[in-house]
Write a structure and sequence with these properties.
Blueprint: H1 2-24, H2 32-53, H3 62-65, E1 76-77, E2 111-112, H4 113-116
Antiparallel strand pairs: 1-2
């Protein structure tokens, strides 16, 4: 039963990582890169716990064998058009630079917090 619970938690973490990676991060305090890396570390921990419970990897569920998400720059901001910037370079001033297409794994732009702030 413990493996099923961990499997469910892994699925939730992979989905959350993908959501943030696709520009749906909602944290007002942390950059998307930091949030994704934090979730990635949790995924690694969950896989380690599964391995401790069942040392035979062939008996572990499919999600255990799923590829780990890539590590990202901690300051990475994904889909920055959703951010509300409180400085003098607000979102309204950058409308012309912003794409309206959704972000995908194959087509996304990295922007760090410093770049967003105009640094």
């Amino acid at each position: 039963m413990e493996i099923k619970r961990l499997e469910h938690q892994l699925e939730r973490n992979y989905n959350e990582w993908t959501s943030i990676y696709n520009g749906n991060g909602k944290s007002p305090w942390y950059a998307d890169g930091w949030s994704c890396n934090s979730i990635r570390k949790t995924i690694i921990d969950l896989k380690n716990w599964m391995k401790r419970i069942e040392p035979d990897e062939s008996k572990l569920p499919e999600i255990y064998h799923r590829k780990l998400p890539v590590p990202l720059d901690d300051n990475l901001m994904l889909n920055s058009r959703k951010l509300l910037h409180s400085g003098n370079q607000g979102l309204a001033n950058r409308k012309k630079e912003i794409k309206e297409e959704p972000v995908s794994f194959d087509d996304w732009t990295q922007i760090t917090v410093d770049q967003w702030l105009g640094g």
